[in-house]
Specification:
By secondary structure, this protein is an alpha+beta fold. The chain has two domains: 113 residues, Methylamine Dehydrogenase, Chain H (7 Propeller), CATH 2.130.10.10; 52 residues, Orthogonal Bundle (Type 1 dockerin domain). The chain is built from four helices and eleven strands. A hairpin with a 5-residue loop joins strand 1 and strand 2. The protein is globular and about 65 Å long.
């Protein structure tokens, strides 16, 4: 019988790792940790390529959508977050559980996300608004179905304004600035339906 051997050790989290998941094409590995972050790793180079921050407590579970465009993360903060894999931006926070979210899984067609919790429930979430182009969905600031110059103008006019109710904070960093323009600029011309 052949012995299995270790091929790599990925270091970067500051606390224990609770879950890992490969992207459908095998190019990325996502890891969720008690340091409240999700990290994305390039499988070939074995290097960290992104740290996704936003959860208030330990990340208990991670899962990629079947097409690899979305990543879901379940946390001890009782939420599920959806991340656009390409832009590395948070797309949505799903709230509904009373306790820690221990597991997340997409349906084979990506139209549903299931989350299991310590509150003894499973919630099924409708992913149809997000499965086509989640980054385009965020970048369509005026919700007219297309990312264009109008979206850039709305962001520019919103510089320095309160972001609590502002869709113009596309990258969800709490500031409406040139970084939001940059994200939208990457998706100019894309259509979201």
């Amino acid at each position: 019988m052949k012995s299995l051997k270790e091929v790599a050790t990925l270091k970067g989290h500051s606390d224990f790792v609770s879950s890992v998941a490969f992207s459908p094409d095998g190019s990325l590995l996502a890891s969720g940790s008690a340091d409240n972050t999700v990290k994305l790793w390039d499988v070939r180079s074995r290097q960290e390529v992104a740290t996704l921050e936003g959860h208030a407590y330990s990340v208990k579970s991670v899962a990629f959508s079947p097409n690899g465009s979305l990543l879901a993360s379940g946390s001890a903060d009782n939420t599920v977050k959806l991340w656009d894999v390409r832009s590395r931006q948070e797309v949505a926070t799903l709230e509904g559980h009373a306790y820690s979210v221990k597991s997340v899984a997409f349906s084979p067609d990506g139209s549903l996300l299931a989350s299991g919790s310590s509150d003894d429930t499973i919630i099924l979430w409708d992913m149809k608004p997000y499965i086509q182009k989640p980054a385009t969905y965020l970048c369509d600031v005026n919700s007219d179905g297309v990312v264009n110059i109008i979206d850039l103008v709305i962001i520019a006019k919103s510089f320095g304004k309160d972001v609590n109710n502002a869709k113009a904070d596309v990258n969800k960093d709490g500031i409406i600035d040139v970084l939001d323009l940059n994200v939208v600029g990457q998706h100019l011309g894309e259509v979201y339906k």
